[in-house]
Write a structure and sequence with these properties.
eight-stranded antiparallel sheet; mainly beta; 1 helix
Length: about 170
């Protein structure tokens, strides 16, 4: 009897409405301002990553078998610039692949998807809203790296201490 009471206290009564809890902090990361654009010095940005809901299964997969993630970027404590468009991009950490998410809306938000486990988010100020543009041309306003992108190999540490981190693209 005590167990049933404890379960009902913990999980609610049968038939109660379950409200999904917010995702863990691990799936969100900060976007840092470059302070290259006036009015961005005190601005804050974030990117929230979630498993794509575009599949009837638990996770969506790309054609190469990698997970598809939804990414929502948002900026706060700043006004939209009077000239140009703030555009969100995702890229591999070595910038060999870049995908345009889209222009931020009136609430300074944009939503898109990414098919890489390790990636960076870049917000730029573009002169026009050209959805066919393969790469940004304007200045970078915000940037941030996915949590998994912050991890790197053990090269230069521990048993691999004799190896040069810089040769693998990492600083010490």
């Amino acid at each position: 009897m005590y167990l049933l009471a404890a379960l009902l206290t913990t999980f609610g009564s049968p038939g109660s409405v379950c409200v999904p809890a917010p995702g863990p902090e691990y799936y969100a990361f900060e976007l840092v301002t470059t302070k290259n654009i006036p009015g961005t010095g005190l601005a804050k940005g974030s990117a929230e990553v979630s498993v794509s809901g575009s599949s009837p299964f638990a996770v969506a997969l790309a054609s190469d078998g990698s997970y598809v993630y939804d990414v929502e970027v948002s900026l706060a404590r700043m006004r939209a610039p009077s000239g140009g468009y703030l555009v969100a991009w995702v890229a591999t950490s070595d910038l060999t692949q870049v995908v345009r998410i889209g222009a931020l809306d009136g609430q300074l938000r944009a939503r898109g998807s990414v098919q890489w486990n390790k990636f960076i988010v870049v917000i730029t100020l573009e002169p026009d809203d050209d959805s066919a543009s393969p790469l940004w041309t304007g200045p970078v306003v915000f940037r941030g790296m996915s949590r998994s992108g912050m991890m790197h190999t053990m090269v230069g540490h521990g048993a691999l201490q004799q190896e040069n981190c810089a040769a693998f693209g990492y600083g010490n």
